[in-house]
Fold this protein.
Amino acid sequence: MTPPRRGLDVDRAIGGVLLIVLHELDSARGHARSVGERVRVAAGAHSMRRLWREQRALTRRAQRRRAADHALRRELWSGLFSDLRPHR
């Protein structure tokens, strides 16, 4: 006699999808704040040199944030795929 197989854990799968959605919303808010900050810096720059320096700093921060967002996104998707695999 074979042991019974467990199926998909729907609650975990839905929770995984919701975590991804919340992460993407937070990521989009972060990008929108970044754009607003860039516009404020550009409007307040008194020279091209200062504008260039400030924009470079903002670009580096944005790149780090995108890399961190992407790493978290990969973890969330990996967890979701793991939850979607049938359990035995």
